[in-house]
Amino acid sequence: MARKGQLSKAAEIAAMVNSVHGRPVVKMASDQDFIPVKIPTGSFVIDRITGGGFTLGRHVELFGDENACKSYVAYRTMALSQRRGNVCALVDPEGTFDADWFSHLGGLPDELLYERPDDAEEAVATLRTFGILARQGEPIEVVTVDSIAALVTKEQVEKDPRDEERVASQARMMSRALRVVTSQNRRILFIWTNQDRMNIGFGAQFQPRTQPGGRAMKYYATSRIEFKKSGRVTRDGLVADKHKLAKKAIPVGNWIQVRAEKEKSTVPYRQGMFVFNSRHGEIDRISEIIQLGLEDDVIQRSGNTFSYEDLEGRMWSGAEKNFKKMIEDNDDLWDEIAGAVADMTVALGKVE
Questions:
Q1: For the domain 35-281, what is the CATH superfamily, name and number?
Q2: β-pairing verdict for 59-64 and 223-241
Q3: What is the pTM of this model?
Q4: Which pLDDT belongs to residue 74?
């Protein structure tokens, strides 16, 4: 151990290496730059399974079923980042960006960098440039690529689709892209959305799923979150059927199951569920805190009745619809339950 005022042996060696390079290429592992910084996703459940949110400077892959909130989570994360005064960017090979929806999620379309690339190589060049600019001090925090499946290589663009395609051109491109982008990145959170595909190399009875883009993302991503639809949410309503009004169950959303297939910054394989309200175009955050409150034993359920005792000893209880209404109408109650859930998320995010 070095005496007070003296450099340790490791610090001396770091100084010698840096003097050779003429810049600080070597730092001590205790440096502030290496402490993981988590940023919120806008979902209590996803923050829980990722140990507090996505980690800056890393790659995150959101994959799974179609229409299962992957883009929603990416856009919401960017919107929250913009609120903190940072710059975000969207690379949109699908061409599905909706400025009104982004505004609805709290985002600022006028402040969002946007690219719809002609090919995958153009997209990669842009991502690499973002990484370089961030290293120079520009406040670029979140960059989303929506989606990997829609990235088309220059080779695929220029080739006649009737000709036989060279095998795995997209996988080779992703392998090169992630090496280049990662080498230039220090603080940007890259969010990549992806889709499930059936692996046609197996028999129909097995039908294992895979994701486009090869295996590179599986290695480079710090977090890989799987999204699966797990049942519809309905409400009773009147629907015209053959010139008659009939009472039917009308779909208003979906239960979404999420699972941390890979998570290097906290405990992996955690999972949770939330409701996406398609009428409102957002995750039902009251349902989220009820879901997590039950898991944390903050909220109790007996039969169809939910109950919560607040810090002043007052008991709040009711059937699901009424209980949610109580939380919605009482800001203090919302803050208290949400705070308890958030505190548990922080506690569970620490690796034992």
A1: P-loop containing nucleotide triphosphate hydrolases (3.40.50.300)
A2: parallel
A3: 0.92
A4: 98
